[in-house]
Amino acid sequence: MKADEILIVSASGIRGVFEPNESRGFFKNFGRLAGNQFAGSIALGRDSRPSGKAICSALLEGLLETRASPTYVGLCTVPVLAHAVRKRYVLASIMVTASHNPPEWNGLKLFAEEGLIIDGAKLRNIADMALSSPRRAAQGGLDASVKEDTKLLESYVRDSLSLASMIGADGRSLRITIDAGNGPSALTVPRILEGMGCNVEVLNWELDGSFKRPIEPLPENLLGLREEVLRSGSDFGAGFDCDGDRVVLVSDDGEILREDYTLALAVDYYLSLRKGPVVVNRATSMLLDQVCMNHSAPLIRAGVGERNVASKMLEVGSEIGGEGSSGGVILPDFELSRDGGLALILISSFLRMEKRSLSEIIKRYPRFHMRRKNIHCPADKVPLILSDIEAEAKSLGNVDVLDDVRVSGSGWWVLVRPSATEPVVRILSEARSEEEAESRMEFFTEVVRKYL
Predict the structure, then answer these.
(1) Single pTM value for the model
(2) pLDDT per residue over 154-198, tens digit each?
(3) Which residues are part of the catalytic machinery?
(4) How far apart are CA 234 and CA 203, in angstroms?
């Protein structure tokens, strides 16, 4: 049996719904294979999903059968483990998380090499071998002798504060409301912001495996945060996903901002300090084009996916970038993964430097309008559909093809992209007006349907 038949395996990691008793053998095998491949120091951590501790137990059993030297961090964010590899505190790290998926889901992210998330092909190979290997029984829980080692988490907080002292701006004490989403951002982000002199209120900080709101920080899931920002007179609010790599902002006047604004504000501030190229993915708003243009900085678009963006940043020597489409900011000298906490260091400093409210700063930016649609499409039809779209779109604008098709013109663009996790084609359009964004999306929707 192949991993792709029962799990979602992509460049973002492994995800699935795991029945604890049936999956322990798989995770023990996975730990043993990872330990043999990355023989050396390996950090292991988890988000706050109920199944995380049992999965870590099985992974540790497998790791301890190899020459690897595992450190169990326990509850932590993805940025904690990505940072640990980037700074060479450890050789590799394994994060047990399913990102924004519902609580019954779980999965794995692996960081190695220079701190990059390992590519989908390598991950798929390990998962295939873990499934095909004999599944020896794994114990049901963490052994009492296995202690949580929080040194890497403490190093992350310390290094974040050191970075803030180098690139942060002094100024007024900001009042910030954090919705940790019952995830481990509650363990790091408030400490960092308080270390910068901010007054921090934390909502949904409990890490007991229950979630008071849906995990993904969508606007409809952040209404409680919005209400508290308005009630408390906060300078802004910040809503996190379960593993801490994404953050969505709520302005002082209660507007829940689109995820691209997180990256735009962070880049705007950073470029005021240091000029250089910025790398974003192909699904990021034209707002980033405007921000970079204001600073005379080149903007480079990489393929969708954290690894694609981070690899391109290393290639071109970019000091800041990310995926606007997921509210993720990457500072490669610190780590090669998206980091919601680092985003808030930059955005808080921006407000202090500007001596303006977030709502006032946002008003200076041009407004772009985005539309999204998913169309069911069998995987075997995707190559032909993309080829036909490429041919049909050449008369409409600039066409750029990777594993998707991006068409752009003056003041608009459309991305047609097959999903890596389900049998759908995603269509994303953006334009200066709502009407054009809608019409462009509908046009390409009809093109896709024509070839189905």
Answers:
(1) 0.95
(2) 999 999 999 999 999 999 999 999 999 999 999 999 999 999 999
(3) 99
(4) 13
